[in-house]
Write a structure and sequence with these properties.
By secondary structure, the protein is mainly β. The protein contains no helices and nine strands. Strands 6-5-8-9 form a four-stranded antiparallel beta sheet, with no helix packed on it. A three-stranded antiparallel beta sheet has the order 3-4-7, with no helix packed on it. A two-stranded antiparallel ribbon has the order 1-2. A hairpin with a 5-residue loop joins strand 1 and strand 2. The termini are far apart. About 10% of the residues are buried.
């Protein structure tokens, strides 16, 4: 297959002629590099908490995920570090309560966050930046 994002759909019928459909999505790439796609946090803007989510090309790999939140002037206010292993290529369960590393609420405004992902199997790394907004 050529490089790209694909969806495979299978439709089958049982002996009573009842149909069912299942599908899976996958990515074909010519590179073995770790790749991050569709990074976002939801809700954005948020008031009390948000969840970070992204797609990657290493399903079933143990991944070290680090999210660092910075002010627009570049001061680090929060670091979130988790080890995750997803059966698919999407991570959706990294939550942040809007508190800094000392447990204090940070002020409203625009912040920059950096997602760094490292594979525990082959040490490959990827990173990406995005913006988030806090409303209080």
């Amino acid at each position: 297959l050529e490089e790209g994002h694909y969806t495979l759909s299978v439709r089958a019928w049982d002996t009573y002629n009842n149909p069912n459909t299942a599908f899976t999505e996958f990515i074909v790439t010519s590179s073995t590099d770790l790749v991050i796609r569709h990074l976002l946090n939801y809700p954005n803007p948020f008031t009390t908490s948000t969840k970070f989510q992204f797609e990657h090309n290493r399903p079933n790999h143990p991944l070290e995920v680090t999210i660092q939140i910075f002010t627009v002037s570049g001061r680090l206010v929060k670091t979130i570090r988790q080890f995750v292993q997803s059966p698919g290529s999407r991570i959706t369960d990294i939550q942040w309560d809007g508190l800094d590393d000392f447990g204090d609420r940070i002020g409203k405004g625009v912040y920059i966050y950096r997602l760094k992902v490292r594979s525990a199997i082959d040490e490959s790394k990827a990173e990406q930046y995005e913006k988030l907004v806090i409303l209080r």
